[in-house]
From TrEMBL:
UniProt record similarity statement: Belongs to the Dps family.
Top-rank lineage group of the source organism: Bacteria
Residue ranges constituting the Ferritin/DPS domain according to the UniProt record: 18-157
Designated name of the protein: DNA starvation/stationary phase protection protein
CDD domains recorded: DPS
PANTHER family xrefs: GENERAL STRESS PROTEIN 20U (PTHR42932:SF1)
Length: 159
């Protein structure tokens, strides 16, 4: 399958797929960081953050699946190895063992800011490609992270 089967121009879809694969790689590292935060959270905020990190990694996992399926819908293969994810991700792994709870939250805020920036870039490229399906999907991802970032910043008392 290729993009013309869903009424898109192949040459305009290639940059969309490249950016979606980059986003997919970053989401995988972000997902694992959320899992590490969930597993290793300690302290007086344990109950609050343990649940929040689980909510966030569950949402990230759903997003990962949607990204991969959208790439396939556009007629291309999604990245599917950790080697690709680590090589292509701008988000870096961290060791969450012994990490302070608010530092965990700040690390997630930084990831989300980076992901939002990537998503804004994808929105520009999808608009140029006439790819409303990808645009709608990515816009939904971005809106979730914008609201979540506001909440997490409020949690650590940062504006």
């Amino acid at each position: 399958m290729d993009a013309k089967e869903i009424s898109l121009e192949e040459r305009k879809v290639k940059p969309v797929v490249d950016l979606l694969n980059d986003l997919l790689a970053n989401y995988h590292i972000h997902y694992q960081k959320l899992r590490g935060c969930h597993w290793n959270i300690k302290g007086q905020n344990f109950f609050t953050l343990h649940l929040k990190f689980e909510e966030l990694y569950t949402e990230a996992l759903t997003t990962i699946d949607e990204l991969a399926e959208r790439i396939l819908t556009l007629g291309k293969p999604p990245h599917s190895t950790f080697a690709d994810y680590i090589k292509e991700s701008t988000i870096k792994e961290i060791n969450t063992i012994g990490m302070k709870d608010t530092d965990m939250v700040r690390a997630i805020i930084q990831d989300m800011a980076l992901l939002i920036g990537m998503e804004r870039e994808i929105l520009d490229v999808t608009a140029d490609a006439g790819d409303d399906g990808t645009n709608d999907m990515v816009n939904r991802f971005m809106q979730f992270k914008e609201k979540t970032t506001w909440m997490l910043r409020s949690f650590v008392n940062e504006d």
